[in-house]
Recover the amino acids of this structure.
């Protein structure tokens, strides 16, 4: 079972599991595509969810977002029912931000991690860096803007650094963890290259054969917007470096180069 299956990562995970011959089901909240089950994890129907989980040996919890209620309460509800339903393995998709970032989002992910660790079934907490690929709301959305618009908006000065992780690398790792009976308790995963936002923009422009005007949004304006609406947090992520692996933290690297990953994105955009 995969939660968040109508989202970017969850959708790719479900597709990958099915392609690898697994009997996988997807759980979603905000919309139900063909074959997806519907459930609001913050207000669950315990009996219905337990019936959905009947016979499930592994659950991949990829549902989450900037809403701490979903990250904490939703995770707690899901863990309770998984324990009752006899789920043997729980894979939780956290965030690399949870390691040391000081934000409400990172804090909610850390609290959710503690909940997962408190249950007796075998678990793995995966902390990926920024994940990109077809359908993501950051790099893919940026590529669509470059392809379709005469103007592209750049957060801050565009020189903040990233380690983007291609979604297929993440999916392959999660599938391998599902099949690994010595599942690690924690797994940190980052992209193979450090790049700035402007380097990503220039690469997308070259591959898409576009040359839009760059409109840089001042950091102070973005931070003010975040105070008004949490939905702007995705934009504010462009205002800091997210590439450093802290001392003492072990991280594994994805195998797909940024150029190859961006090329796949551009194929989907055209």
């Amino acid at each position: 079972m995969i939660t968040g299956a109508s989202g970017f990562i969850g959708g790719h995970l479900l597709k990958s599991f099915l392609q690898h011959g697994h009997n996988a089901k997807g759980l979603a909240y905000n919309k139900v595509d063909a074959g997806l089950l519907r459930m609001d994890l913050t207000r669950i129907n315990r009996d219905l969810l337990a019936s959905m989980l009947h016979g499930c040996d592994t659950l991949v919890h990829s549902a989450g977002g900037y809403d701490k209620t979903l990250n904490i309460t939703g995770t707690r509800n899901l863990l309770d029912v998984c324990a009752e339903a006899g789920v043997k393995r729980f894979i939780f998709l956290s965030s690399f931000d949870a390691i040391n970032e000081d934000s409400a989002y990172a804090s909610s992910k850390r609290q959710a991690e503690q909940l997962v660790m408190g249950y007796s079934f075998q678990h793995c907490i995966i902390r990926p860096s920024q994940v990109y690929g077809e359908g993501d709301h950051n790099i893919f959305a940026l590529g669509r803007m470059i392809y379709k618009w005469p103007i592209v908006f750049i957060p801050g000065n565009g020189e903040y650094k990233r380690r983007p992780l291609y979604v297929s690398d993440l999916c392959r790792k999660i599938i391998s963890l599902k099949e690994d009976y010595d599942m690690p308790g924690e797994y940190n995963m980052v992209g193979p290259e450090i790049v700035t936002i402007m380097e990503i923009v220039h690469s997308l422009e070259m591959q898409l054969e576009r040359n839009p005007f760059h409109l840089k949004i001042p950091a102070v304006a973005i931070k003010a917007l975040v105070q008004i609406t949490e939905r702007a947090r995705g934009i504010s992520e462009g205002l800091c470096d997210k590439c450093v692996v802290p001392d003492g933290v072990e991280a594994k690297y994805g195998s797909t180069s940024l150029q190859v990953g961006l090329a796949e994105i551009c194929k989907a955009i055209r």
